[in-house]
Amino acid sequence: xxxxxxxxxxxxxxxxxxxxxxxxxxxxxxxxxxxxxxxxxxxxxxxxxxxxxxxxxxxxxxxxxxxxxxxxxxxxxxxxxxxxxxxxxxxxxxxxxxxxxxxxxxxxxxxxxxxxxxxxxxxxxxxxxxxxxxxxxxxxxxxxxxxxxxxxxxxxxxxxxxxxxxxxxxxxxxxxxxxxxxxxxxxxxxxxxxxxxxxxxxxxxxxxxxxxxxxxxxxxxxxxxxxxxxxxxxxxxxxxxxxxxxxxxxxxxxxxxxxxxxxxxxxxxxxxxxxxxxxxxxxxxxxxxxxxxxxxxxxxxxxxxxxxxxxxxxxxxxxxxxxxxxxxxxxxxxxxxxxxx
Length: 341
What we know:
This protein is of the alpha/beta class and 341 residues long. It has two domains: 7-150, LarA, N-terminal domain (Rossmann fold, 3-Layer(aba) Sandwich), CATH 3.40.50.11440; 158-340, no CATH class. The protein is built from nine helices and 14 strands. The chain has an eight-stranded mixed beta sheet. Strands 3, 4, 5 and 6 form a four-stranded mixed beta sheet that branches. It has a two-stranded antiparallel sheet with strand order 1-2. It is elongated, with a radius of gyration of 21 Å.
């Protein structure tokens, strides 16, 4: 309801239950489920986002087949598929379970919504399942490859401390996009190639639309006390355990102010001269149009980004906290603001 998706806004009935129908097992022994209301209907038409996934890399990630598997499988399917994914890998499970759903003939097709570099709608592509399984898979692989070629990234090769103002489920399924901060939901540092190396991540708060789910805080090295205090641990644990990613909700080191968090974590990046520590600040991992950087990082930006403000001192309020990120765009606040070209 808080996202504005309800009967009054879309002009159609909304049927939302966790009831599923088992449609058999895959060759790997994965029991496959499908939403009962959809299975009992005349046909299903899907509206998936085609985008990169935060937990793995492959030719098929988030899109039509993931929605046929984990989306239509509801909670029962998610538990089953993530359990098998721990051993087989999520892409194989999505392909196998999605193909099983495809074979029922219940899903007629869909409208693939390609996600752009700043998470805007960049393409609308109708998909008909009349071409057969192999052709449908190949089509989605092509759409994902195109989306990946558009992806926005932090415009430097290495960052000592990355400051993320907000994390949340509405930003990324993992709270923070792992392929932006270069972290694994399993706790691994810098697992993604061709992605800036990030030594430390500082997360400041949860978004309101995360509804207090703290998924992703475990990927940070330090967080603000307020973030920990905002977490509702019940949905956080449910999400984490269903996805088999307990490391993603471990509680990091936390302090009562931005100043203390930054001072404490800056001393852990292997530089005895703290004036040499590089900082980069973003609002969240979904909005990478603007970022603020320490002056010693500016030379590393070209030609990927351009400086759009003069340098100025970091300002803290009386509680030792930074001003909000959106105020930076208005020309006051932290060190440098840059924008991708």
